[in-house]
UniProtKB/TrEMBL annotation:
The lineage of its organism: Eukaryota, Metazoa, Chordata, Craniata, Vertebrata. One of its GO terms (biological process) is SCF-dependent proteasomal ubiquitin-dependent protein catabolic process. SMART domains: FBOX, WD40. This is F-box and WD repeat domain containing 4. It comes from Hippocampus comes. Pfam families: F-box-like, WD40. InterPro entries: F-box-like_dom_sf (IPR036047), F-box_dom (IPR001810), SCF_F-box/WD-repeat (IPR052301), WD40/YVTN_repeat-like_dom_sf (IPR015943), WD40_repeat_dom_sf (IPR036322), WD40_rpt (IPR001680). GO terms for cellular component: SCF ubiquitin ligase complex.
Length: 392
């Protein structure tokens, strides 16, 4: 019996043990073999060990609509830092922008508005006129979050706007006395944090807050656990309290489950947080560290740390659900890529000039692009170009 006369499941299992170069050569034997080798199941083991292929630590696939073979090619460039840079959007006034990605649409806050732009990855520029504008704030938008049905924003006017993405309706929540620095939402739950040192818990069914929690410190970040059972707050660390605290959503008026860490120095505020799984929380901020917390273990110490080598505050970050972290620094628009299996930074990109320094206020990435919002421009890194390996 010839190799390719084997049952498909047996054949795919054998091919899954081959390395990238061998599969590339094998795909050039014939059209039939090329078709077989191009199947996602063949590349899954390889993809699991690379950066940003969309295969998470639990083997789920974030980008099932893109061939895994193509994502493996692009992953080589993420690792090597090979990309094509562009500046698809610029503006004259210095802002504190925030961005979100939803498929092929990019949402960008500019002053008191949030604009959505379609992404055309073959073009260097994003068309100047957005396809939709979300407005209603009387001052700058500080943060916003996307759900399947809503866009929810918090502004420096202290208000929260809940925009229905399927209609033109907007619900206004009069929540805080000062700017809403952070906001998160999952399902029907909304949690907002403010400079007024309070957290408020809302639901989409009511314009009144369900709970109010005084924190006695400015709130910089908040994130809801994927299980919806709790949320985490990150504060400015100006008081004698841990800046990281976990709160129970279901108990009345919010109950603090525990505090994370015990050695934060004064002023080591937490600026961004990401739940990668219900048990794995990533945090970053003014103390120049990215930290991974395993909520199943002792809350006193993080299980892993990565230090920004130039002692810069870390404004934002995102993970790929597996091995990669991308972070944005406070000086010269520096974006860093980290491999969680290493202690040192893997790649870095300086997006602003030496003469004009700007923090990376927010960054987001897809399987092939990274977008970073600075004070006067949106920058793009395209990792599809100059591919290092050939796979037909």
């Amino acid at each position: 019996m010839l190799l390719f006369q084997l049952p498909e499941d047996v054949l795919y299992h054998i091919l899954s043990y081959l390395d990238c170069k061998t599969l590339s050569r094998l795909s050039q034997v014939s059209k039939v073999i090329c078709h077989i080798v191009s199947r996602d199941v063949v590349w899954k083991n390889i993809a699991k060990g690379l950066l940003n292929t969309g295969i998470t630590r639990y083997w789920t696939d974030i980008y099932p609509h893109i061939l895994l073979k193509d994502r493996v090619k692009t992953a080589q460039n993420w690792c090597d830092g090979v990309c094509k840079r562009s500046t698809p959007l610029k503006w004259k006034t210095k802002l504190l922008p925030w961005i979100q990605l939803d498929g092929d649409t990019l949402f960008l806050s500019q002053a008191a508005e949030i604009r959505s732009y379609p992404l055309r990855h073959g073009c260097k520029k994003i068309r100047y006129n957005p396809v939709k504008v979300y407005s209603g704030h009387q001052a700058d938008v500080c943060r916003f979050v996307l759900t399947d049905s809503h866009l929810i924003s918090g502004g420096s006017d202290g208000k929260i706007l809940v925009h229905n993405r399927r209609s033109d309706s907007t619900m206004k929540l009069f929540g805080h006395n000062q700017e809403v620095n952070c906001i998160d939402s999952r399902n029907e739950l909304i949690v907002s944090g403010s400079r007024d040192q309070t957290i408020k818990i809302w639901t989409l069914a009511s314009s009144c807050p369900r709970d109010l929690i005084p924190l006695y410190d400015r709130v910089w970040s908040v994130v809801i656990n994927p299980t919806l059972s709790s949320f985490v707050t990150g504060t400015a660390c100006c008081e004698n309290l841990s800046p990281l605290r976990i709160w129970d959503v279901e108990r009345f008026l919010g109950t603090c489950v525990c505090s994370l860490g015990s050695d934060f120095r004064r002023g080591a505020g937490v600026l961004d947080m990401v739940f990668e799984t219900p048990f794995h929380l990533f945090t970053c901020g003014y103390d120049t560290f990215i930290r991974l917390w395993d909520l199943r273990l002792s809350p006193q110490k993080s299980v892993m740390e990565w230090e920004e080598p130039h002692d810069s505050a870390l404004y934002c970050m995102q993970t790929d659900g597996n091995h990669m972290i991308a972070s944005g620094s406070s000086y010269y628009g520096v974006v860093r890529l980290w491999d969680k299996r290493l202690t040192e930074c893997l790649q870095f990109f300086q997006l602003s000039s030496d003469l004009v320094s700007s923090p990376v206020y927010c960054l987001r990435f897809s399987s092939s692009h990274l977008y970073a919002a600075l004070a006067t421009a949106l920058h793009s890194l395209d990792f599809r170009h100059n591919l290092n390996i050939t796979i037909r």
